[in-house]
Design goal:
Blueprint lengths: L3 E3 L10 H9 L19 E4 L2 E5 L4 E12 L2 E12 L5 E6 L8 E6 L5 E7 L1 E5 L4 E14 L3 E14 L4 E5 L15 E3 L30
Antiparallel strand pairs: 1-12, 2-4, 3-4, 4-5, 5-6, 5-7, 6-9, 7-8, 8-10, 9-10, 10-11, 11-12, 11-13
Length: 220
């Protein structure tokens, strides 16, 4: 049976005893003063790739081959990135790797007002510019870094979402992260203490699903 829980210092929907103890001791959350870089959503998206095609019917631009997409402090690296813009001007991107690739798509974003960054890897990365929501799907790992190298928190699951507006994470288990010692593919997390004091558990978890509007080609 899959389990999902919030790692943002807000109340989980369902959590095992061990995970509850971890959440009481520390939380995968950020201080209330810091968020993802708020100016990112207003920055232009710049993309470097081997090839580019435009699908006029679907209003989607497709980049392939060593793609590097940047939008302010946001960075996405993948074999293929699909980009579209809605009538309001918000931009959406989906990054995926080539079938059979041993590498994973990569995401990176600075947190506003602090020397901290959020980075993640997964087979698929969806960025929703309107909600400032990043969804990492299949073999997903997200880390909070102090500076560019020191890992403070890390969570690994089948689907991990990062809500940049609220600095809120959610994670979901799945068979794609099953392995020795974890046959059911449960979420695994490493959480750093927050000055030795437990963080409050309140609020509701974010939706755990890739946004339909940013899939580009309409397939999973």
């Amino acid at each position: 049976m899959n389990e999902s829980f919030s790692l943002s210092g807000r109340r989980p929907t369902r959590v095992g005893l061990a995970a509850a103890l971890v959440l009481l001791l520390s939380c995968f959350a950020f201080g209330p003063a810091a968020h993802a870089e708020q100016a990112d959503k207003d920055k232009p998206m710049n993309i470097d790739a081997d090839n580019m095609t435009y699908d006029d019917l679907k209003q989607v631009t497709i980049f392939t081959g060593h793609v590097i997409a940047t939008k302010g402090t946001i960075l996405i690296k993948a074999d293929r990135v699909e980009v579209h813009q809605d009538p309001e001007g918000y931009q959406y991107a989906t990054g995926t790797m080539a079938p059979g690739s041993k590498d994973l798509a990569y995401f990176h974003q600075k947190r506003e007002g602090v020397d901290e960054y959020v980075e993640g890897t997964a087979e698929r990365i969806d960025y929703d510019g309107k909600q400032d929501l990043t969804t990492l799907t299949t073999n997903a790992t997200v880390r909070r870094l102090q500076g560019l190298t020191t890992v403070m928190d890390q969570v690994h699951g089948s689907v991990v979402t990062y809500d940049g507006q609220n600095d809120f994470y959610t994670a979901r288990s799945g068979k794609d992260v099953a392995g020795p010692g974890n046959p059911t593919g449960r979420v695994r997390a490493m959480l750093s203490p927050r000055n030795g004091a437990p963080a409050p558990l309140n609020g509701a978890p974010a939706k755990l699903a890739p946004a339909q509007a940013i899939q580009g080609n309409g397939t999973q």
